[in-house]
Amino acid sequence: MTYELRRRLSAAFLIFGFFLLWEVLCLSMQVSDLVLPRPTQVMETLISRFGVLWPHIVQTLWTTMSGFLLGVTVGVLIGAGIGISRTAYDTLYPLLIGFSSIPKVAVVPIFVLWFGSGSVPAILTALVMCFFPIVVNIATGLATTEPELEDVLKSLGASKLDILWNVGLPRTMPFFFASLKIAVTFAFVGSVLSETVASNKGIGNVMMTASSNFDVPLVFAGLFILAMLGMLLYVAFSFVERRVTGWATRREDFTAI
């Protein structure tokens, strides 16, 4: 059995053991499903109500990915400007730090006031939640480009655009994909947060309605759905990352025990 297979089997066994322990503890301690439903109850709710939940899943995924793509675009542009310009760094970075320190739940009512309830506040909340990690990582990747590489290209007559394209952007790719995997989880948080406040559709709205009706298994079913969507997108970005930045990935056999 290879190390990779043993590692994956160990991880799967631990995950299964976690849910098994959860199930056993709830049964042995007779925990009410109003407090903590068992995993089997959550899966039963998820399967029996999947037809009802599906439109809400599509809505949440659409608003999340729309806000995420907008956040990536804004984050890359601002991060590139900060990374290559000292003036932009001194001007924009303090403003971005101040904005990122604002609790995003305080921003949702402003978006509702401007655009009304619905998808737009959810998309904008996902955007403001996810763009800051991308800005920081893009700026860090460009700012830490080796001066020796830039000097070599300058001696060969390369312009600043040539240096950015041939050195800066490839150097930034590992930072960029690391930020994508973080930002997509933040985007889910933002869209669901907005759906609980200012939407009549989406997983966030389902969870809020279910909690008001004391339907705790449905609340946990919504949490499971969000967790699965987040993990699937994380795995997708990890797959693309290995294909694009394989040269920057440390070989796993060096970490084998």
Low-confidence stretches: 253-257
- How would you spell out the order of helices and strands? HHHHHHHHHH
Approximate strand percentage: under 5%
Number of strands: 0
Mean pLDDT: 83
Number of domains: 1
Largest sheet entry: none
Please specify the SSE layout and strand pairing.
Elements: H1 3-28, H2 39-48, H3 50-84, H4 86-100, H5 108-115, H6 119-143, H7 147-155, H8 160-198, H9 203-212, H10 216-244
Helix pairs in contact: 2-10, 3-4, 3-6, 3-8, 3-9, 5-6, 6-8, 7-8, 8-9, 8-10, 9-10
Describe this structure in words.
This protein is mostly helical and 257 residues long. The chain has a single domain (37-244), classed as MetI-like fold, CATH 1.10.3720. 80% of the residues lie in helices and 0% in strands. It is built from ten helices and no strands. The radius of gyration is 22 Å and the shape is globular. It starts with a helix and ends in a 13-residue tail after the last helix. Mean pLDDT is 83; it is low at 253-257.
In short:
This protein is mainly α. It has helices at 3-28, 39-48, 50-84, 86-100, 108-115, 119-143, 147-155, 160-198, 203-212, 216-244.
Short key terms for the protein model shown above:
mainly alpha; 10 helices; disordered C terminus; single chain; MetI-like fold; 257 residues; globular
